[in-house]
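Aim 2, interim progress. The first record below pairs a target sequence with its structure tokens.
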Amino acid sequence: MPPAFSSGSSSQLCRIIPTHLYCPACSTWRSRLARSGIALHRAKNRFASTLASATAVNATKSIPPKNRDLHQALNELRKKAPGQVSLSRLQLAIQGLESEHPTARIALLGANVPVTARRLIRLFLADASKPQHDWEARILGEDSLQNQDLIVRFGTPQNEGLQPASSILPVLFVPAPVLQHQGIEILISSVKVRDASTGLNGDTLSDVLLSPIIGTPNSAAGRQSLISQPVHRAAIVANGLDELVSVAELLAKTKFQSGSERRLVDIVLNLEGNVQSLTSGTITVDAAKAEEGLQVVRTDLAKASEFEKVWTESGMPALSRWLASSSAESSVGLSPLLRDLIASLLEAINANIAIQAQEARIVARSKAMTTETRLSLENAINTFSQLGHAELQSGLAAAWSSRNWRKLAFWKLFWRVDDVPLIVTDLVTTAWLPRTERAVYELTGRLKQAGVSMPSDSSTMFSPPQPRAIPMQADVKEKASSPVNESLILASTASTESVSTPLLPPSRTVIKTGSVPYRAQSLASTISTSRQAFIFTAITSLSSSAQQIVLKALTITGVSASLSALSFLSVTNGSIYESATVLALGTAYALRRMQREWEVQCKDLEHGLMEKGRSVLKQTEEHMRRLVNDASQVVEDEAEVRARREAIEAVEKAKLALAKHT
């Protein structure tokens, strides 16, 4: 539409025209480039000081004091719950609080085409006491323009001879007093409903009615951009009973998020011959009868009484009252229209938060382990524990009675002391939980198949052994008198304490053990890791103890032989029998001491292997049960839960601010 120029003298227009050129090719006004530096500088200063936009960084909005709390609450709600609310409708509510005299936007949506809606708006705004205005012909439009969207606002129609101002939406200014007094503007558009050819596909969102998509021309080629145009209130215009049925089906399939939101949408039925209201939420009119009465009174003002009768029979007063009641102004507090809009937004946010919370719980529950799977895994873990302890006892019992272990009898240490590492390694490897180790791999596979996050994926269970001595506790110092005892207790303590160590990814984590880097192990390699740790400590200590025992026995025997020879040579009346007795007693004592110390070391080894096996089985079982329990729990994303909680708090704050305006 042509822009509205401010009134001025002809000399001012003469000064504007020589300084601007009109380009017919691109339909724009262009400033002449031949402008002096001083003039350009003055123009920049003038524009910066007088034409600052409302969205400038340094611009401040003047908000009425009574609306500041609610305005601030809605702004906070926009930040806290952007995904649970229609931002365009929320912005419309915020804009309504920024003015003492807000403008209400009402939408009349025609069924498939807005032709009937245009006719009704023309009848509502027409002045029967005056001839037909040019804007009436524009609002009815030509045949090619009747299906276009249009916004009707109060104002003076612009001069057709002037270039129309650029606008996102096509706007028609109408000098109707009702638009000015009630503070409303009307959006004329259409909504797709079911017909015989296309039908109605699926459900419809409420934003289709309360925030309709408007097509705006953006080029000379006729291409359009689609933007959302929120409204305070809407009515669907149906032409005839067939369209009324389609509109009713559309409303039945529309997903209104609250009762307040549903009450913002009404139905207007254009039905010739019968204007009685069919339902409580339907406004019935007869546009043809109203147009006939308007034409009669404009032809002869003396027929005003006849026009009033026809106007009343057409049902137009009900539509006029509905449009007039949509004012956004109120003498006390917020207007009912603006209050209903904000209330519907708050209810919609609560409904969306509840839906999102339910969907999040469903998703979390779907990721959690089922009861049948959990029971199956728990039974498998119980069986694993029973078989593991049985194998530990039977395996060690068979190992201690094996021929390989009898090779380490105390009296054979003199020639087998160097075989201690090989024999102990073979014994522990073959007798200490070999089948249980394979069962751990099998259970690990079943846990992964059930969707359990395994330690190999996210963490580690055990720490590596410490190769150097660690000070023992006071209650185990006596038991750790021998090197083997100390090593066994050290290995058991190190493995027990390592269970509570934070679990770290094996691909990125390197645990320092002394000066040797060690990469963390997974749950499946728990037994093998513990076995290697035990072999490392047991071989070192047992080999050292065996060598010391043999050395002590040989030393005592050598000392006895020396004493025997010395007694034989130094005693005058001595005999060889007495000297041999000293040697025999010393040798017997050395062998007896050797036997006693070696049996103690062997008993400590047996006890250490048994306790270590029980500890590893217990830790593995507990860790598997903890993994199953964690996978069975319904765990939601903490960030999403916190975001929903903050959104609910923002809604409650906005409700309290809205309650102050009631």
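The second target in this work package is listed in the same format:
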Amino acid sequence: MKLRQAALKAARDMWADYILFMDADNLLLNPDTLSLLIAENKTVVAPMLDSRAAYSNFWCGMTSQGYYRRTPAYLPIRKRERRGCFPVPMVHSTFLVDLRRAAARRLAFHPPHPDYTWAFDDIIVFAFSCKQAVRHPPPEPSRFIPAWVPKADKMGFDEVFMINLKRRADRRERMLSALRAQGIACRLLDAVDGKAMNASQVQALGIAMLPGYRDPYHGRPLTKGELGCFLSHHRVWEEVVAHGLQKVLVFEDDLRFEIFFKRRLMNLMREVEREGLDWDLIYVGRKRMQVDRPEKAVPRVRNLVEADYSYWTLAYVISLQGARKLLAAQPLSKMLPVDDFPPLLSPRPPRSEYKSHFSPRNLLAFSVEPLLVYPTHYTGDDGYISDTETSVVWNDEHVKTDWDRAKSQKMREQQALRREAENSDVLQSPLDSAARDEL
């Protein structure tokens, strides 16, 4: 891996247009191979190599851990029944890199990408590097036409927090750009990096895990990533109480905004205040877990429902009263993922085996309907990265965790909203209905 990286660096240093990597036991017999590869005009492209068996120098499928996955697409290509240039998750042994392309600047064999958690194997490391090199950063303003940027404000909230890990600079850049474009002023809060915490640091904070806790889908204990995520939100709640902030808006850094987000949320909060609604927490983005019956609409407040069992802390509004209730439950002494915590403080906790640990259960939780933010990526999407699931168990760094593709698909099927469970009575306009259809 280091030798390949040295070769890549040498090619860049001499301003080469291309570099051809070829293993010593590979033979190219067609004199036109290089010309044909260049003509494809791709950042990374490989010729398909023949062997005496079905083996070649490409994969058509890859598992969630980066290993080879058999697919129906492989053999027709390998037998040349399908001809052409095909996008695949892996090429190796012999391939051409176009160094003139911007994406090629981010390719590397060593060291592995910071997000890499798979096997220490040169072809898998490089394939992961290729995947991560495809970025779609926010468009830059034109140098020739002045771009109007709205004046930033806090939308009537005492504070707007955006939680971001320092090592996730790309997410921070994208979120700050999106907030800037909407005229939303935010305070950047450095997230707690659970992966960097050791057992003594956890003990010093007085943290103890909720007895018997197991993730409902994977049956595993809390991960270090989930530990860091909870502590990050806990810091926000402490800030709210310490400074007497009446209401704040909290964003995580992996969300996308619905159309007219700012105006719609401000209108909703005005109606909440006009009606004198007693509330602690309002989900702005969530994963609805109860999918069998509709949720109760809030009278005289459009697009707001009483939240039933909900997951995710993607974006939410929290009041001073709500933050006090969350802290009063002393969650650090019975830690669990932050997604599970607010539902357990509701009058109807979803997981009865844990409700005895939390009292009183009087959190007044509501949800915007339809939602105003959604995740940028769902589990299993291309580019999906999770700092909570792809981690290690909180008290054993040797036990690695990752999201499960099969279970994630099953989860999606289980959580499909039944028609009779749709919150149809709070959909007030064709625009809202269109936003709802994106679910």
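Residues 224-242 form the longest helix (19 residues). This observation will shape the mutagenesis plan for the next reporting period.
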